[in-house]
Amino acid sequence: RYSSMKDYLSELDKETKKALETFYGFSEGKSKVRRSADEWNSTESDFFKHIPLLKFEDFSRTVTDLRSGQKRKIEGSVFHKDSSIVNSGDSNDIIGFQLCDANNSSDCALYTFSSGVNAIQEWYKLHYMNIMAQIPLETKERLSYSVDDLILTCFFDGLSCDKRHFTRFHHPLHGNCYTFNSGENGTILSTSTGGSEYGLHVVLYIDEADYNPFLVTSTGAKIMVHDQNEYPFIEDIGTEIETAAATSIGMHFTRSRKLSKPYSDCTETGADIPVENLYNKSYSLQICLHSCFQKAMVDSCGCAQYAQPLPAGAEYCNYKKNPNWMYCYYRLHEKFVKEQLGCQQICKDACSFKEWALTTSIAQWPSAVSEDWMLRVLSWDKGQKINKKLNKTDLSNLMVFYKDLNERFISENPANTLVILLSNFGGQLGLWMSCSVVCVIEIVEVFFIDSLSIVMRRQWQKAKKWWNNRKRDQSGKPPQASDPERQGHDNPVCVDEDLPTFNTALRLPLPPDSPLPRTPPPNYSTLRLETAFTEQLPDTLEVGQH
Fold first, then answer.
1. Which topology term describes how it sits in the membrane (predicted)?
2. What pLDDT does residue 35 have?
3. CATH number at 144-259+351-411
4. Phi-psi region of 51 (alpha: psi -120 to 50; beta: other; left: phi over 0)
5. Using 50, 70 and 90 to split pLDDT, how confident is the model at 349?
6. How far apart are CA 74 and CA 63, in angstroms?
7. For residue 205, what pLDDT band results from cuts at 50, 70 and 90?
8. Which CATH superfamily includes the segment(s) 267-347?
């Protein structure tokens, strides 16, 4: 609530209005008349002392200081916050501020903006975070909107809902935010039918008159659909809804899963990432990047940046305790954007994630014929709390629902596995070489197993020969021919180390001093002549000499 924060922001708002009057010559309720530097309050402003606002006179380094009105040359690196392209319009439109190292005043950096709106908002936001960092969390929650103030009516799945279904969490810049169906109380609501009648239907109280005019310049609300275990980065990917309108958001749910190593460089749970999760939610790439930057901020600047969770043992930055934190923060953020901090190299995508595709449609609400009675009834319902008649620009009608209950699942599968590889290999061999698994086994046997056995056998023969020679040398006796253990392949005449064949064995000479082997003739009974006749035939008689 801006009204409840005015006591903390009164000095900052006063200096911001002075800056607008000096730069652009206007103030609230007065004509456009530029103020001179002499009309400034004689007391020096701490806000302009820490971050002086400057206006470029030309594209050189000549600037005009807002408070003193003096022109001077500046030194240091120039960073264009709106874009990497220098503004090509009138140089008088370029406004920025200078940040210097508190320990070395000559080390400065100038941050420029092509629009005065962006420059004033960035300058205001820095001081706003510095002030809010010094206020206790309980006080900030009390000064923000309660769920009863924010939500006028609530329906889900055709039934009424109330504040018991909403969980509060405090956002550093937006204040109190509320999560519907967070599941922290142990109960998760579900719907069994698609369509707008069975989704979430709420009417929000925006209270446009109580907005901070310098922190935000748009009116409405931000919403985000997310899983119960997912942290809502509502400032990054939130959907804005406008006032005096009925916003219908239809959803399609998609669950995606990527393959991890070796197919991609994603992480399953983030346990393998050397970055502490400061959000106490399931891992995501955004959580890792924000946590990594916050850790680098604490290590480099000695304090934590206010817009992100506080690490253990650290405290938020403010220039009373940390006068150098703004310069350190901008320098560190510049390295982060240029991917020189190492966070983009350390953090990885999550392998599994959920996403909701949103389709938004807007209609005028309330209609001209129903505006009168509807505003009267809502004003009567909340009259005791807001003490005024509601205006349609203070209200926003929101419907969030599933278009259908079909869940789309996207997963990655490997194009080739070991089984598929072997199948393709065997198919190609059979197609082009008529080769089967048995053929491959035989080839392996011939070229590998048989070759190995031959090599091993030759090594065994050499080792055996060496062992026999060693035993003979130790005994000092020559080998005896009558050695019963001597076999044909132990013939010392053989010089070939391979076993002899049958033909080569027949041609081997006898070893010296060895008796000639004798083989007795065969004793075959078939060689004996048996007389088959009792008398000798005449024609077989021997013929003598006449």
1. Multi-pass membrane protein
2. 44
3. 2.60.470.10
4. beta
5. very high
6. 7
7. very high
8. Acid-sensing ion channel domain (1.10.287.820)
Q: Is the dihedral of CA 52, 56, 62, 64 positive or negative?
A: negative
pLDDT in tens, 26-61: 665 444 444 444 444 434 456 766 777 777 665 556
The mean-pLDDT minimum among 178-187, 284-293, 378-387, 408-417 falls in 378-387
Domain segments of the chain: what residues? 2-26+48-134, 144-259+351-411, 267-347
The phi, psi pair for 54, rounded to 5°, reads -130, 155
Contact 221, 152 (CB under 8 A): no
266 by DSSP, 3-state: which?
A: coil
Q: Give me the pLDDT at residue 444, please.
A: 81
Per-residue pLDDT at 58 = 57
Q: State the pLDDT at residue 74.
A: 63
The tokens for 348 are: 């990885």
CB burial class (10 A; 0-12, 13-18, 19+) of residue 337? exposed
- Which DSSP symbol is given to 267? B
What single-letter amino acid sits at 366? P
Strands 53-56 and 151-156: unpaired
Count CA atoms closer than 13 A to 269's CA, side-chain side: 2
Residues 6+ apart with CB under 8 A from 52: 65, 66, 67, 97, 98
CA distance 306 to 172: 7
What's the confidence (pLDDT) of residue 322?
87
What is the spatial distance between Cα 153 and Cα 183, in angstroms, rounded to a whole number?
21
Task: Name the amino acid, one letter, at 343.
Answer: C
CA distance linking residue 153 with residue 411, whole number of Å: 40
The number of residues making up the chain comes to 546
Which burial class, exposed, middle or buried, applies to 329 when counting CB atoms under 10 A from its CB (0-12, 13-18, 19+)? buried
DSSP-derived letter for residue 398 is E
Q: Is 299 left (phi over 0), alpha (psi -120 to 50) or beta?
A: alpha
